[in-house]
Amino acid sequence: MKIELASSYGFCFGVKRAIKIAESAGNAATIGPLIHNNEEINRLAINFNVKTLNGINELSDERKAIIRTHGITKDDLAKLKQSSIDVIDATCPFVTKPQQICERMSEEGYDIVIFGDENHPEVKGVKSYSYGRVFVVLEENELDDIKLKQKVAVVSQTTRKVEKFMQIVNYLMLRVKEVRVFNTICNATFENQEAAKELSKRADIMIIIGGKNSSNTKQLYLISKNFCKDSYLIESEDEIDKEWFKNKELCGISAGASTPDWIIQKVVNKIEKI
């Protein structure tokens, strides 16, 4: 059986940047998981004494607080900056962009439509920068019963599929006079998705590596599953089942944007042994 890695996979710019920031800070606490990868968060905790808090209410005697890659709400950030704690912002610049857009467009009187998961920390943060009406949707029909203004600005969660974003934009164009479209989908996300799609069309088994609470990793898995029915989402090599590989000829591998190379290599090593 051949093993082939996707042409684009793994750590994105924002995650690499956040990890470097956390390693340099040391002896700090992150507000929410820095990235959606438990193995890497454990490594930072053990090697750099970077602990993870669920929210700013859990801060006690910490001197340094790191803002996660997905960002936090505007109110929480303001409270942190008013305290005596040293605030280190590791928010991905691609996440900061839709925050700024929502703030500016709502100031100008636009309704805001965010394509994304309302419960995802990135979306919660982006939404908090809007002053006026803001609607978070995953499907265009969720807007059917909403009477929108004739001025709408639309952004996307950075890790969503561009095809679905275009469907929502098209829906709005047919119903609203003025639609301002901001493509805030991260290039790395798009490239990883296209690479997983291309490889899964040829492979007879796909292994997607990454956090099961990671939006972009789940998107990779769903894309792969669409073209290769024997697709599996795993967080580490411990989840691999050798039965998966019986009579397989090409094993494709991709990984989410929060998955470090050392985890990917462990998975590859275990599959090679099988």
From TrEMBL:
Keyword 4Fe-4S: yes
The entry's keywords: 4Fe-4S, Iron, Iron-sulfur, Isoprene biosynthesis, Metal-binding, Oxidoreductase
UniProt-listed Pfam families: LYTB
CC cofactor note: Binds 1 [4Fe-4S] cluster per subunit.
Pathway noted in the entry: Isoprenoid biosynthesis; dimethylallyl diphosphate biosynthesis; dimethylallyl diphosphate from (2E)-4-hydroxy-3-methylbutenyl diphosphate: step 1/1; Isoprenoid biosynthesis; isopentenyl diphosphate biosynthesis via DXP pathway; isopentenyl diphosphate from 1-deoxy-D-xylulose 5-phosphate: step 6/6
Residues binding [4Fe-4S] cluster, per UniProt: C12, C92, C186
Transmembrane intervals: none
Keyword Signal attributed: no
Residues holding dimethylallyl diphosphate: H36, H70, H120, S214, S215, N216, S258
Binding site for isopentenyl diphosphate: H36, H70, H120, S214, S215, N216, S258
Cofactor(s) annotated in UniProt: [4Fe-4S] cluster
EC number: 1.17.7.4
GO molecular function list: 4 iron, 4 sulfur cluster binding; 4-hydroxy-3-methylbut-2-enyl diphosphate reductase activity; metal ion binding
Catalytic reactions of this protein: isopentenyl diphosphate + 2 oxidized [2Fe-2S]-[ferredoxin] + H2O = (2E)-4-hydroxy-3-methylbut-2-enyl diphosphate + 2 reduced [2Fe-2S]-[ferredoxin] + 2 H(+); dimethylallyl diphosphate + 2 oxidized [2Fe-2S]-[ferredoxin] + H2O = (2E)-4-hydroxy-3-methylbut-2-enyl diphosphate + 2 reduced [2Fe-2S]-[ferredoxin] + 2 H(+)
Domain of life: Bacteria
Free-text function comment from the UniProt entry: Catalyzes the conversion of 1-hydroxy-2-methyl-2-(E)-butenyl 4-diphosphate (HMBPP) into a mixture of isopentenyl diphosphate (IPP) and dimethylallyl diphosphate (DMAPP). Acts in the terminal step of the DOXP/MEP pathway for isoprenoid precursor biosynthesis.
HAMAP family, alphabetized: IspH
UniProt name for this protein: 4-hydroxy-3-methylbut-2-enyl diphosphate reductase
Annotated gene: ispH
